Amino acid sequence: MSTRLRGFSILALFASLLGLAFAVYSTLDYADHLDRRVHDLHCSLVPGATPTADSEVCRAAMYSPYSALFKDALWGGVPISLFAIGAFAFFAAFAVYLLVRGPRAPAYLRQLFLALTSTPALVSLLMLTLSVTKLGGVCKTCLGIYLSSGLLLISGIGVAMTAGPRRAPSTLGLLVRVVGCLFLLGGAAVAPGLAYAAAAPDHTPYLKSCGTLKLAPEKQHDLLALRGQDPRREALFFEDPLCPTCRAFHARLVGEELIERLDAQVVLFPLDSECNWMLAEPLHPGACRLSRALLCAPDARAALDWAFEEQEALAAAGKQGAKALDQLIGARFGQSVLDCGGSKKAKARLNAHLHFAAENNVPVSTPQLYLGTSRVCDEDTDIGLRFTLTRLAPELFR
User: Strand 233-239 relative to strand 262-268: parallel, antiparallel, unpaired?
Assistant: First the structure.
């Protein structure tokens, strides 16, 4: 029995250290962005592996509403991976205790170990469900934490099934020990978050440092209207329907339940040299053609939602050529929208959008968000979105 207990204790220690490594890398990725720049992410199932270029799912998870707590009060919030750091450190210490005590570890502590290991497993199950249902994918670093939690639960079951001294303390003594373990687990989980919050810089001075529009949009620019059901603040977007970052930004606005509270106008700004003279070569081939189709669609909001939802297929078709892209557009909107998209009127309207961008000397990048005439910094539209909007547009949260 002692050999069996030792084996499950070693598994518990391994799972704890593995989960700790993944949680540390996830937190480091998060903390790197506190300098308001974009960094590579350690999006790998191998802790410490070289950051990969294919990390869009991990970046989407980090920017999502589920990645951190207290995003209203702190720029970026307190990443939930910090709570995992504290919890896995606690379980590593508990596993070391089981290894040292061996068969002398009381049966009630083994049962308690099982009960406690169920908590990270339940949290991981919840986060996995949110990732699949809300984000449409699972980041590899997060998956590493989920797998570590599962291994920890298996070790807890194994430890609880091994025999040990049955003598238990009095009811009061048992209650004190159980409460003490819960207090230690809770304290260990919360402590890293408290330290992070205390050391995080104040981003408030940077929120209005990214410029303003020179000219407000006028009727001749004929922008897309994107009015929410409960509009509380005017906004202006510069977006490319084939831009992955625009899609992620749109998803954040939906996830934060903000899209319906904006009275927005959209400047279609395709990063495609077919129509955009500000580019020497296309970054997103087919974006001009798709943008003209969106201008012709009967419901701008529904059309833009569709473009983002089907972006991968549309981008692939755009690289193949006009015929492939037209097939997808025609299947969704019909021949009338295709005909309209190729008309002089649609081309002139899209050209007006591009001239509006040029007249305001906006950066040749997407997405961009303006509240009134003030540009919201790029970094404040991702990890710091909620913090920024609570200060620049507090009416959105009332």
Answer: parallel
Q: Of 47, 19, 21, which is closest to residue 155 (Cα–Cα)?
A: 19
Q: Phi/psi of residue 54, each to 5°?
A: -90, 75
Q: Which domain holds residue 324?
A: 219-397
Which CATH number is 17's domain given?
A: 1.20.1440.130
Give the N- to C-terminal CA distance of the chain in Å, as an integer: 60
C-alpha R_g of the chain: 26
252 plus 328 within the same structural domain = yes
Alpha carbon dihedral 15, 21, 22, 24, in 10-degree steps, equals 140
Residues with Cβ < 8 Å from 320, sequence gap 6 or more?
none
DSSP string, 40-91: ----SSSTTPPPPS--HHHHHHHHSTTSEE-TTTSTT-EETHHHHHHHHHHH
pLDDT in tens, 13-69: 999 999 999 999 999 999 999 998 888 888 888 876 776 655 778 888 898 889 999
Helix (H, G, I), strand (E, B) or coil at 228: coil
User: In angstroms, rounded to a whole number, what is the distance separating the alpha carbons of residues 51 and 39?
Assistant: 10
Residue 281 vs residues 272, 275, 277, 285, 297: alpha-carbon distances, Å: 7, 11, 9, 9, 27
> What ranges make up the beta strands (E) of 199-349?
224-227, 233-239, 262-268
- How far apart, in whole angstroms, are the C-alpha atoms of residue 47 and residue 141? 8
Long-range contacts of 271-280 (CB under 8 A, 24+ apart): 271/240, 271/242, 271/243, 271/364, 271/365, 271/366, 272/240, 272/242, 275/347, 275/350, 275/351, 275/354, 276/354, 277/354, 278/354, 278/357, 278/358, 278/364, 279/364
Instruction: Identify whether the C-beta of residue 259 lies closer than 8 Å to the C-beta of residue 253.
Output: yes
How sure is the predictor about 351, in pLDDT bands with cuts at 50, 70 and 90? very high
**Distance (Å, whole) CA 175 – CA 182:** 11
3-class DSSP string for 334-368:
CHHHHHHHCCHHHHHHHHHHHHHHHHCCCCCCCCE
**pTM for the structure as a whole:** 0.85
Q: Do 171 and 76 fall within a single domain?
A: yes
